[in-house]
């Protein structure tokens, strides 16, 4: 027997720098080997896809849109008969106004001086309920000059106008609005407006004195025929809160047409039907002035709860969020509960990397889950909404991609946020509640409204500053500054731009992850 | 000495089960922190909501009671966690095996636990509601909720009903969480289910375009139905009368408790 000296133990192989991707692989293995978590992901996909059928089953009911139900949750009712006209871009529009027009052919110019814009509002008498007119001007009551494809609703146009309290503006094809000179118009401070047609381009100018002209905007109307209708118009939208009907009257002087004049014809564009003018208009010619009175509006139909958009199809995101939050939180709280965290931290002593690997895995899995669900929801939703026969707000391919990828990102970030909160709180139930409450309660409070109260300042603040801001990435109908409406999250409108809202959610997740890193390093596991 | 097996397990009086559960409850920090959380969060959100609201005219149509008790949106989540953890912790720590060995009559154990949850929860809910009500009474008159705007009294019978109903609502939500937790035997899944039940019905009801279905969704959902009990104006237009609304929540809670009791009775712990 030989006596061998005891040699201290040496590992056969020097500890190799652990690879981050090994860690990710290890976390992925943990994730996929828990059957319940896979089922939760499938549940999220199923819930989001299935809810499309609920959200898009819309009967052709003729109900009037009602503000809200007494328990405070605003109800969206789509009135569908008859459908509103569609503008050149396919969007549902309001196109009802009074038009004093004449046909003109080829290129040319129309110039006017406006000396007054006044308005009337229909009010009911307190004594007998009879309707009477009283002075009243809406911020977007408007009168001015317009060049329009035809007098049929939804046709292309470009207009220079004076508005109730938004100064001069050029608007074209319903959705575009460019401000011009500010201030009110009066006999002592008149405004000159000019539209120049050159082929398919219409350029608008305004001036305070008729000699110094400022370019306001340039509209390209590709399908404008050679002969169009040019003239003067007046319109006044109703008050969306009270339903009051307004009219506007513009007084025009020095009307100059470069085309050969054929005399004015007055038309209530849209007639007096459901999508027509609320009150018939008129024009009056006397002593070198022409005054035009009209009601209605030339604008996109946005914000009034009657617009259908593919955003509805993604309402199931709320349902899908819950299983994702549960799994996101349990991805780490489960380790604390079973003591697995000690094994994990022994295998990967650099704690920050472990949390990063977990965030990468849960984020990626949730993103893919959300991507599948949102793709199905948008595809099925688009198809089903088209079948209702009600005009749907058109969404460009790029915006549709934003809706789908944004929804996937929203879900992925929520899962990472839940993971970070789980790391901080280390208890499943608490972490799940905290993450759920952080997203749902601000949204519910922001959409909880009392009758007649518009969006409240703090409700808007809630969907700006909390993770609920991320739902702005699903907004499909833009908010138009030239349309006064109740723009609330219930109707699908968010105060932040789509990606800005998602960035807010990201900031929350990043802040929670930072706290989680700190606590994970400082605390005993 | 001979080894003799006891003929029958010892008979426990219900009071002993109660006492045992009460000892468990008061010797850990979690439950009291959660109950404090219910009070603090409910009052804090109530104060914020009362400060944010303004009634400018007779027609503002804002319900002062629902404003004061807005904190329930947040407080109910904490109440639900308290309910879930009251029994969920037994499952997650394996304590349940010990508890059931000591107390083989499972339903007695279940009832003792429910009772030990209910009493402190009622107290916490009463404190939360009292705090919110006091805040509302102090803040709201300064924000236009005056007799001139049609708010003759902020402590009428309807307001007291709203307050009492909100206390009961919070307690019922805790019991709902408790029942679901026994039924699914997992805290995480239970709280996910309860929060889903609470928060998803109002969102679904807002998006459904058929008015009848939407109204039914609001009648069925525990949150949308239960909050009817807070309404003091426009009651005629509610999907349910205030007490019917609270009854729906009670049905949910009783249903969850029954399901939990059945699962506990007939399945291995």
Q: How much β-strand is present in the residues of chain A?
A: 15-25%
From the structure provided, what is the oligomeric state, counting identical versus distinct chains?
heterodimer
Average pLDDT of chain A works out at 86
Put simply, the count of helices of chain B is 11
* Largest sheet: number of strands, sense, barrel closure of chain A: 8 strands, antiparallel
How many β-strand runs of chain A?
17
Gap from first CA to last CA of chain B? 36 Å
Order of helices and strands of chain A: HHEEEEEEEEEEEEEEEEEHHHHHHH
Total domain modules of chain B: 1
Strand content of chain B: under 5%
Low-confidence stretches of chain B: none
Order of helices and strands of chain B: HHHHHHHHHHH
How many domains make up the 3D coordinates of chain A? 2
Greatest interface (CB-CB under 8 A), with counts per chain: A-B, 54 and 53 residues
Q: What are the segments of chain A in which pLDDT stays under 50 over at least 5 consecutive residues?
A: 63-80
Largest sheet entry of chain B: none
């Amino acid at each position: 027997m030989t006596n061998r000296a005891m040699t201290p133990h040496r590992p056969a192989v020097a500890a190799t720098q652990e690879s981050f991707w090994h860690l990710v692989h290890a976390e992925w293995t943990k994730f996929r080997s828990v059957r319940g978590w896979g089922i939760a992901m499938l549940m999220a996909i199923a819930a989001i896809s299935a809810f499309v059928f609920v959200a898009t089953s819309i009967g052709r009911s003729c109900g009037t849109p009602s503000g809200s139900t007494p328990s405070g949750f605003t109800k969206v009712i789509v009135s569908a008969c008859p459908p509103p006209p569609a503008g050149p871009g396919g969007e549902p529009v309001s196109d009802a106004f009074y038009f004093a027009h004449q046909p003109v052919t080829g290129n040319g110019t129309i110039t006017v001086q406006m000396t007054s814009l006044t308005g009337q509002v229909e009010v009911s008498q307190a004594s007998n309920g009879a309707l009477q007119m009283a002075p009243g001007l809406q911020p977007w009551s408007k009168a001015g000059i317009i060049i329009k494809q035809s007098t049929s609703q939804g046709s292309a146009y470009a207009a220079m106008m004076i508005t109730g309290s938004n100064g001069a503006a050029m608007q074209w094809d319903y959705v575009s609005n460019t401000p011009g000179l500010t201030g009110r118009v009066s006999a002592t401070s008149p405004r000159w407006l000019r539209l120049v047609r050159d082929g398919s381009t219409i350029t608008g100018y305004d001036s305070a004195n008729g000699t110094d002209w400022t370019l306001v905007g340039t509209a390209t109307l590709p399908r404008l025929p050679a002969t169009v209708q040019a003239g003067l118009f007046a319109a006044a939208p109703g008050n969306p809160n009270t339903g009051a009907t307004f009219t506007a009257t513009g007084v025009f002087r020095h009307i100059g047409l470069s085309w050969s004049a054929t005399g004015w014809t007055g038309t209530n564009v849209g007639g007096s039907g459901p999508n027509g003018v609320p009150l018939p208009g008129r024009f009056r010619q006397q002593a070198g002035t022409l005054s035009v009175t009209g009601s209605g509006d030339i604008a996109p139909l946005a914000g009034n709860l009657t617009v259908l958009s593919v955003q509805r199809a993604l309402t199931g995101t709320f349902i899908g969020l819950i299983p994702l939050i549960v799994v996101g939180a349990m991805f780490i709280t489960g380790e604390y509960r079973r003591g697995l965290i000690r094994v994990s931290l022994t295998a990967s002593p650099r704690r920050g990397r472990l949390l990063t690997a977990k965030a990468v895995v849960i984020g990626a899995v949730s993103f893919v889950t959300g991507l599948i669900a949102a793709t199905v929801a948008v595809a099925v939703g688009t198809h089903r909404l088209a079948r209702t026969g009600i005009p749907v707000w058109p969404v460009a391919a790029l915006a549709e991609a934003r809706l789908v990828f944004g929804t996937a990102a929203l879900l992925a970030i929520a899962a990472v946020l839940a993971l970070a909160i789980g790391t901080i709180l280390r208890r499943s139930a608490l972490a799940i509640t905290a993450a759920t409450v952080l997203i749902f309660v601000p949204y519910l409070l922001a959409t909880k409204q009392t009758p007649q109260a518009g969006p409240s300042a703090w409700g808007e603040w809630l969907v700006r500053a909390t993770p609920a801001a991320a739902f702005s990435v699903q907004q499909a109908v833009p908010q138009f500054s030239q349309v006064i409406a109740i723009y609330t999250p219930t109707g699908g409108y968010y105060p932040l731009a789509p990606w800005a809202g998602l960035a807010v959610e990201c900031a929350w997740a990043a802040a929670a992850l930072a706290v989680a890193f700190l606590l994970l390093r400082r605390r005993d596991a | 000495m001979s080894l003799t097996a006891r003929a029958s397990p010892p008979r426990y009086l219900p009071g002993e089960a109660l006492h045992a559960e009460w000892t468990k409850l008061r010797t850990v920090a979690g439950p009291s922190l959660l109950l404090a959380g219910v009070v603090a969060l409910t009052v804090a959100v109530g104060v914020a909501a009362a400060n944010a609201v303004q009634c400018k005219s007779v027609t503002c149509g804002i319900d002062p009671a629902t404003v004061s008790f807005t904190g329930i949106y947040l407080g109910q989540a904490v109440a639900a966690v308290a309910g879930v953890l009251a029994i969920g912790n037994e499952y997650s720590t394996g304590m349940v095996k010990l508890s059931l060995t000591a107390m083989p009559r499972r339903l007695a154990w279940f009832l003792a636990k429910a009772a030990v949850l209910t009493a402190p929860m009622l107290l916490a809910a009463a404190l939360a509601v009292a705090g919110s009500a006091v805040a509302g009474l102090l803040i709201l008159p300064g924000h236009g909720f005056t007799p001139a705007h049609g708010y003759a009294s902020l402590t009428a019978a309807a307001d007291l009903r709203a307050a009492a109903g909100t206390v009961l609502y919070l307690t019922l939500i805790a019991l709902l969480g408790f029942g679901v937790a026994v039924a699914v035997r997992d805290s995480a899944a239970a709280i996910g289910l309860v929060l889903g039940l609470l928060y998803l019905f109002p969102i679904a009801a807002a998006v459904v375009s058929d008015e009848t279905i939407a109204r039914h969704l609001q009648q069925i959902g525990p949150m949308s139905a239960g909050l009817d009990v807070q309404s003091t104006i426009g009651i005629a237009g509610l999907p349910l009368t205030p007490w019917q609304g609270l009854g729906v929540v009670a049905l949910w809670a009783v249903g969850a408790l029954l399901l939990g009791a059945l699962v506990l009775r007939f399945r291995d712990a």
